[in-house]
Amino acid sequence: MRRCVKCKGEAAVHLKSKNASFCGEHFVEHFLNQVERAIKKFKMLSPGERVLVAVSGGKDSLALWDALLSLGYEAEGVHVDLGLGDYSAGSREACQEFARRRGAKLYLFSVVETYGVSMREITARNRRATCSVCGTVKRYLMNRLVQETGHRVVATGHNLDDEAAALFGNLLGWQEGYLARQYPYLPPSHPGFPARIKPLVRLSEFETRTYCQLRGLGYLGDGCPLAKGASSLFYKELLNSLEERMPGSKLRFLFGFLEEGRSRFADVPVELKECEICGQPTTASTCLFCRLMQRAGLDPLTRPQVRQVV
Known about the structure:
This protein is of the alpha/beta class and 310 residues long. 47% of the residues lie in helices and 13% in strands.
């Protein structure tokens, strides 16, 4: 029988990567310590600071929101309803239930209410990689929101597995620009835009799932239907196979790059100008969001419909 490394009681969780076991109480403590450690190491937030958490209703984003609230940060959530039938209904309900349970503020965007079509239709009309289109639209909408609410920081639930897979893909394709910007804290790219942080960078998907279960967080277990076939899922499978044979590989791979390799890639500053349509900063005459909306036959100047749940 495994014993908790903290209290020597019966262990409920064993982490191969750290060669450590925990009872339920001390695993939650470990999880919160890892979040706080990442925040301090990468200077993400000041104590008690206000932060906007991008929540999908899945395990990672809800675990992050819960952890930030537990650590004393003024964490508010934002959810983009993609209009994907039962999946989106379940995602929205998981976010709303968490907000009600914790008494936290939640901002809701509905793609269908705003543009009259779902994200599936927007991506189909553009004939581009689905995750690329969806990510562009969501980032644009969140940037517009923070300009109204005054948040300085947006937090996302990217975990160790996500970041290691992204690094693997960027190295495989030798994407030097992305490698230069792969970091758990990214400062604002333009005045009025938020900084972006990834406080779960030290924690695996297994750990976020276990945290949610121990904390009784009702999360949506299904993955996004638009992400099927994404190369990142294949990269995760490869890295999981390596992790199984060599526990701790993902952590060493990612943090070795962050501490030793990233500095070798120059983040070349780019000249920004105002988008001719919406006025938001862009490197081209028209920003990518406006181009995507136009290709989909939609008006990029449509004001997003935002609702609040507390």
